[in-house]
From TrEMBL:
<feature type="binding site">
    <location>
        <begin position="175"/>
        <end position="177"/>
    </location>
    <ligand>
        <name>substrate</name>
    </ligand>
</feature>
<feature type="binding site">
    <location>
        <position position="68"/>
    </location>
    <ligand>
        <name>substrate</name>
    </ligand>
</feature>
<dbReference type="InterPro" id="IPR026019">
    <property type="entry name" value="Ribul_P_3_epim"/>
</dbReference>
<keyword id="KW-0413">Isomerase</keyword>
<dbReference type="InterPro" id="IPR011060">
    <property type="entry name" value="RibuloseP-bd_barrel"/>
</dbReference>
<keyword id="KW-0479">Metal-binding</keyword>
<keyword id="KW-0614">Plasmid</keyword>
<dbReference type="GO" id="GO:0004750">
    <property type="term" value="F:D-ribulose-phosphate 3-epimerase activity"/>
</dbReference>
<feature type="binding site">
    <location>
        <position position="175"/>
    </location>
    <ligand>
        <name>a divalent metal cation</name>
    </ligand>
</feature>
<dbReference type="Pfam" id="PF00834">
    <property type="entry name" value="Ribul_P_3_epim"/>
</dbReference>
<dbReference type="GO" id="GO:0046872">
    <property type="term" value="F:metal ion binding"/>
</dbReference>
<feature type="binding site">
    <location>
        <begin position="144"/>
        <end position="147"/>
    </location>
    <ligand>
        <name>substrate</name>
    </ligand>
</feature>
<feature type="binding site">
    <location>
        <position position="37"/>
    </location>
    <ligand>
        <name>a divalent metal cation</name>
    </ligand>
</feature>
<keyword id="KW-0119">Carbohydrate metabolism</keyword>
<comment type="similarity">
    <text>Belongs to the ribulose-phosphate 3-epimerase family.</text>
</comment>
<feature type="binding site">
    <location>
        <begin position="197"/>
        <end position="198"/>
    </location>
    <ligand>
        <name>substrate</name>
    </ligand>
</feature>
<feature type="binding site">
    <location>
        <position position="177"/>
    </location>
    <ligand>
        <name>substrate</name>
    </ligand>
</feature>
Length: 230
């Protein structure tokens, strides 16, 4: 398990008119992954982008492309996202009838498999697919829009998921309302990856490095302390 908190800026908050340049800028500023929020206007009340846009920016960096599919159904599109260069593909437990099959399909495509849970979805729904997983993404806002306030009850959920994982090499990712104030709370509970949109992209490109550093600094110490106590 990585000792460093992984920071994954969500391009949902980037300037879409210069998306490739924005990806390069946050990577140069210290981003570890690039988080891609794919929304369909059906599973969530918003539409963002799909495989053609991801393909267009894939050559801007060799960083991990962390693809979060907020679409229903997801299964028929998994291959399209794999072929354009997504390294991790995450599907929502709420958006698929056959979760085990979807996770196996992602791995068969050569990608790492993730599952996402909405704030009101209990973690017990993934108990029987843990051995199919590389990543568990816990939504700390209701999916569909950026800039929402963090839901505090997710902190205890992170801790329960961390216990459920046990010794399995599964990363816990938090998406929604992540700031330097909320980052230490989820890091202490067991989070490994922080998705941040507004908190990274605010202030323009000259602020990106400082914004990423602030998130990492806020999360690393409590996360290391938690790792040491396990």
């Amino acid at each position: 398990m990585s000792q460093k908190t992984i920071i994954a800026p969500s391009v949902l908050s980037a300037d879409f008119s210069r998306l490739g340049e924005e990806v390069e800028a946050v990577c140069e500023a210290g981003a570890d992954w690039i988080h891609l929020d794919v929304m369909d206007g059906h599973f969530v009340p918003n539409i963002t982008f799909g495989p053609p846009v991801i393909k267009a920016i894939r050559d801007r960096t060799d960083k991990v492309f962390d693809c979060h599919l907020m679409i229903e159904p997801a299964e028929r599109f998994l291959g399209a996202f794999a072929v354009v260069g997504c390294n991790i593909i995450t599907v929502h437990a709420e958006a698929t009838t056959h979760l085990d099959r979807s996770l196996q399909a992602i791995r068969d495509l050569g990608c790492k498999a993730g599952v996402s849970l909405n704030p009101s979805t209990p973690e017990t729904v993934i108990e029987y697919v843990l051995d199919r997983l590389d990543l568990i993404l816990l939504m700390s806002v209701n999916p569909g829009f950026g800039g929402q306030d963090f839901i505090p009850s997710v902190i205890d959920k992170v801790a329960r998921v961390r216990t459920m994982i046990g010794a399995r090499p599964i990363l816990i990712e938090i998406d929604g309302g992540v700031t330097p104030e909320t980052a230490p709370l989820v890091a202490r509970a067991g989070a490994d990856v922080l998705v941040a949109g507004s908190a990274v992209f605010k202030g323009g490109r000259e602020a990106y490095a400082g914004n990423i550093s602030a998130l990492r600094t806020a999360a690393d110490e409590p996360r290391l302390a938690a790792l040491g106590s396990r």
